[in-house]
């Protein structure tokens, strides 16, 4: 288990490779965001299926859970401060994610809790940036976890 103290400013973590399939894009779109199923939807490479931006966020969360959340003493996140979709994610892309700790501080009002500000960057297999997201995450401190 990793705690607040294990994530000083400058820490960089890498997650992935997440392979995007046409079947997954269609399944997600049918259930949650059919806008990308409209004929002629912009952004596809040579007619390839394009993932909804919200689907890309779900892919990000999957990679983040596997590489960080489920291995850390996380206590939640108060929201997202910045989210930008920079270019389409298509079937056949293999996504990788880099997360960097930009800021870190102990909670002034809640002893035993630290906050880290993370910048998440998702790229495809060719290195093209697909998404950038920034948010605070709350983590238990080592002494807070003993309470």
Could you explain the architecture of this structure?
The protein has 147 residues and is α+β, with helices and mostly antiparallel strands. The protein has one domain (4-145): Thiol Ester Dehydrase, Chain A (Roll). The chain contains 3 helices and 5 strands, in the order E-H-H-E-E-E-E-H. The chain has helices at 22-31, 53-67, 142-145, and strands at 12-19, 82-85, 94-106, 113-123, 129-140. It has a 5-stranded antiparallel beta sheet with strand order 1-3-4-5-2. The protein is elongated. The chain starts with 11 loop residues before the first strand and ends with a helix. 25% of the residues are buried.
For the structure shown, list the relevant keywords.
Thiol Ester Dehydrase, Chain A; 147 residues; alpha+beta; 3 helices; 5 strands; elongated; five-stranded antiparallel beta sheet
């Amino acid at each position: 288990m990793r705690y607040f103290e294990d994530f000083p400013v400058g820490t960089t973590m890498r997650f992935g490779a997440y392979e995007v399939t046409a079947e997954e894009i269609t399944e997600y779109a049918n259930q949650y965001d059919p806008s990308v199923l409209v004929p002629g939807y912009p952004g596809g490479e040579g007619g390839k299926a394009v993932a909804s931006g919200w689907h890309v966020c779900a892919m990000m969360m999957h990679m983040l859970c596997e590489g960080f959340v489920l291995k850390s003493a996380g206590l939640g996140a108060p929201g997202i401060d910045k989210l930008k979709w920079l270019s389409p994610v298509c079937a056949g892309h293999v996504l990788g994610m880099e997360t960097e700790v930009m800021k870190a501080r102990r909670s002034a009002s809640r002893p035993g809790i630290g906050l880290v500000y993370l910048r998440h960057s998702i790229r495809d297999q060719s290195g093209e940036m697909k998404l950038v997201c920034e948010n605070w995450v709350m983590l238990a401190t080592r002494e807070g976890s003993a309470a």
